[in-house]
Structures are given as structure tokens and as C-alpha cells.
Amino acid sequence: MSSQPFVQPGEPLNDFLKSFWERQIHAAETETPDYRHPPLPLARIKKVMKSDPDVKMIAADAPILFCKACEIFIAEITARAFIVADSNKRRTLSRADIAKALSKSDQFDFLIDIVPREEANFGGSSTNPNGAGSSKKVGKQDQGTPGVGDAPAELEGGEGGVRSGSEVLEQVFDDTIAAKWKSEAMAQDARGVSEAMTDWVIDELRYKAKIFEQTGAVSVFTGDVVKSDSVLPESFKLELQAAVKPLEDIPAKDKDWHPGSKEKVLDLVHPSLFPLVYGRSKVLESGRTTLEGCIAQCGEGVVIPVPSEEESTVEAPYYNYSIKQPYSRKFQWLPCEVDISSEKAKITSYINNLHPEKHKALYALIEQVVDAAIPLWNMSLAPTIACAWKPRIHYVGSYSEIVQPEPAPFRPPIDPPQLNLREQFKEKGLQVIVKLANIELGPEKKTYMGGTWHVEGQLNEHICATALYYYSNVNITDSTLAFRQQTNAEDANEMPYEQDEHAFLTDIFGCQNWQPGVQNVGGVHTREGRLLTFPNILQHQVQPFGLKDSTKPGHRKILALFLVDPHMRVLSTANVPPQQKEWWVERLHEVRTGLDKLPRELRDEVFNEVRDGFPISLKEAKELREELMEERKAFEIKHDSAFKGIQFSLCEH
């Protein structure tokens, strides 16, 4: 039987499928199979069939039937992909066409891991941003700019090249120093960076230096990463270090080393411990918890049901069909509520895993970090507001070589989008997920190998932005946080180009044909005292670092704040009373409940006999954390695959 799909241009899918299967059935009923000459290699077919442990024997006609099924399947997929290409006015198939064709029917979900695209590399694992925290695509390219060219990226170089050193904002107005930077950039770069380009970057730096004078913060790259080394003073950093000490100075057996970190990452406050557990956690039917009385409310409320599969599924674009379920049906990190109606932020519900009575001073300091982060979040999130972007790269129908055009003189953005979280959400307030963690090294563990590429959370949390405060770095080498983003590969795939001329992909997009449309933006140094914010549509990855002096211990300590999309409201610690059994037991020891007349040992026995599954013990909470981490690890792999799912696919004419 021929594998000809028999699909015609403009033919609707349903019409094609009807006639296609009629032909397949007719052919199967009338053809006489040739057992001696199967259409596919017989040995290979038998090997595939034997990979199923339930297969004990293979009948003579089984490989023929298997080959026929493969032949029909390939014919149908080819036809479906052609219909996708035809709808885009193209006559050549791309991998994106196949991916989109597969995404249109759940019957092809079994192909999630073998669709023709680059496989996920867990050495840099991670999401489609639409699957976690944002409804917008990554980068300004999707708002009108075709791509981010390499030459400007090399000039900016994260914090390298021209934009290096904290003193840059002071020195940028010195013409002698600026001229030195320009000459060094042109001498080091072999990609055709011109003097006009370096002039443009210097002018942009001077524009940003003026913004820094007003705000104390500056944006990095052409993206939305914002950093400040001055919004939180030295005195505050020392206060925070002291306030965190009680969480660190505990017996070694009680230290909570992050699972799988080989005792290098110490969790002080982590949202994966005692999260919201669907089908287990209790949620208040009315009212809210308070900081003062929340522990007394432990055990109140009704058990939250497990979301249905329909509730956990979203209609995803074809390029991330592999994560149709970006929601977890098991867990959700719990944010605290933050009142921003007055000049100072005020945390109004407990921070999960941070005792509200024992750590009042730390609560007050975290409020100050929220205050400092809000203006930076405004800067990070404002560019994601939908607006018209003027393309800085214009395309022509044909070319013989790549010619990098000289830039026009730098002009500050006209009416940049404005965002004021305090003003816009002063009535509703903000929801913030808090994490405190240390990376601790020593003579026996000299190097931290870095993290995975990821965005924060799943769609349950609706995280839209992150703030990271690096409040203590001791005896470690330079540490960097790297960023990468998607570019719109489909735009390039639709562009006119000459036969075999693919070089423009590297020069304009920084990518190659048949490779993912992912751009490595650069890295930001995570120096002590720095506050860093970025939107949750950029993947980020902690880069490796080690000890400066390998004979002494060293560490890096961070406070992380994950901002929940203020347009959304998720269940928070205002709705979910504390679940920590230890907190509950401590309180019962302190108040007169009748149990206080019993010896302490007997009271502990009574508490241990609580068998309704609530509150949750630390032992069980750690078991649930392992389950949560396994689920999110699998999600990150699928997300990273989807993030890299759209490839540049310039077919030959």
C-alpha cells in the first residue's frame, strides 16, 4: 500500500480523515501481504516488538501488521502536518508543523518525549513561561521586535564588556574612560562592532545612569532584569544577618539540608515544606488567620478537595503542547499576605515555616526588603505590559550577504510603560512567597556545581516576578545568575531568504538553523548587598562557584521573594492555618488546656496519638516535600523541552 497521504491543498482535516481511513480499510481488505519482503527491516521490527516484556512469541504475520500500522501512522501524521503548513501558505514541512499537528489531538500525547525537536538536557533543565506564572511570551520579540541581534548583546555582555564594574555609572560620563571602553570593545569583538554601535551603547549607559541617580536601580541587558546595590544599606544587611542567626544556630541533626544537595544547600525557610496539599490541607471557610492568633487556629477549616483534571488543564499553544497540565493537582506553595496601603509594607499573615512569634524581628526586616523590591518589580514588570514595539531590524526579500546596519543615534524610550504596584494594588495588597537558603561550602565540599535552567513554580502559584537579596557572601569566588529567553523562531521561519543562506539567523537572532529559538542573554554577578529582580518569563540558572580559600568554610546566603501575579488571588496563609504539628504542640504546652496537669512525657504521648492526619509532623512534611520535588522535577524537564520546542527550521526551496 502506498503511504501517499492523498491530502489536497485547502482540504479540511475532518474531510481528509474520512476519505483517508476509507482508503486504508479498503487496501487492508484487498492487499495480499508479502511475508518474505516486509516494507521495514524485519530484525528491527522484531527487536522493537520484543522490547515489550509481555511479548513472549511473535507470530509470522505480526511484523507485517506492525509495519502496516507504522506505514499508516506515518502517512496520517504527514498529512496532518501538511494541512498545518498549508494553512500557513507554505508547501514545505517543518518540525514545528509536525509538533502543531500532534498537539491538535490528545491521541498523540504518547509522543510527548519523541516529537522531533531538541531533547531536554537536564544539565540545563526547566518551562514554557506560559506554564508557570505568566500569560505572556518571553521577551520583547513577541511584542513586535523580530529578534535580539548578537552584536548589541556582545557589547552589553551582561555585566562584562562595556557594562562592567559597579563604578561604571560614575565613570560613564568621563569621555576619556568612555573612549577607552569603546576601543576595547571593538578590539575584542570579531563580529563587526562599529564605532557607531559603541557610541549608541555609551549613550544608553548615560541615560541609564541618570535613571540610577533617581531610583538607585538600573536595568541590565535589553531585558527586564533590574539590580541595585544601594536600596538596602550596609546597616540593614548586618541586621538581617543577625536576625537569621537563630535559624542557623541549631543542632546539626536538626539542620534541613535540601534533598539531593549533598549538604551544600541549607534550607532555613522553604515553601516546599508544609505546602498546601490538595485533599489534605484545611482551608478556612470564612475569615482569615492573623499573625497573633494563627497557631491557635491550627486544625480549623475544611479539607480542600483535589482539583479535577479539567481544572488542571489549560488550552496551550501548540509549541508547548507537552505541558497541557501546568497546574499541580497535589501541591501549591503558600504565599503570605502583604498590606501595601500605607507607606510601609506590612505582612498580615504568617510566612510559611517562619514562626510569627519567635521571629518578629525577621518579619519586620523582610517587610523592608518587600518595600525595596516593589520599585524594582515595577521596572522589571513594566516592559511586559502590552504595547507597540518598533522593530529595530528591518527585513528585505533577498540578500547576498549579511550587512549589519549602522544604528541611528540613541534616543531614550518615548513614554515607556509605567507600572506602580503600590498605587494599582493598594486595596488588594500583594501575595509573596518567601524563601531563605544558604549555600555552604567547606574543605570537604569545595564547589557548588550550579543549578538548572528554570522559572519559579507551577501555574498554581502564578508567580510573575522574583526578587533576590544576597545578604552575605563569605570566602567564595564570583557567583553569577544567568538568564535566557525565547525568541520568535516562527517569524524567521516565515521570512524570505535565499537558497542555503542561513547565516542571518546567527547574526540577527544569535541562533542556528534546526536549533531552538532560545537566546542566552547573559549573567549578573550576585555580589553581597545586591537586590536583583526579574520577571518570571526569563529562565535563570545559578552558575557554578567555589571557595576562594579551600582550607576555610564559605557561604552565600539569599532571601528570595516570589511575587504572585497581583491580578490573581491564590490560597495563602491567610486562608490556610499553620499545618506544623510542632507549632501546635508547643502552643498546647504553653496554654492551660487541662493537659498541663499531666507530666510532659504523658502529654507528648497524647499528642503522638493524634491520628486524623492533622496537623502534619515534620517527618511526614519532609516525605511530602520529596513527592513535591519529584513532581516539579518532571515538570521542569517537560517545561524546558517546551521552552526549546520551537526551532528555527529553514527548509530548502
UniProtKB/TrEMBL annotation:
Residues 121-162 are annotated as: Disordered. It comes from Agrocybe chaxingu. Residues 123-133 have a biased composition (Polar residues). Residues 40-102 form the Transcription factor CBF/NF-Y/archaeal histone domain. GO terms for molecular function: DNA binding; protein heterodimerization activity. Its main location: nucleus. It comes from the Eukaryota. Signal peptide: none annotated. Keywords: DNA-binding, Nucleus, Transcription, Transcription regulation. This is Transcription factor CBF/NF-Y/archaeal histone domain-containing protein. GO terms for cellular component: nucleus.
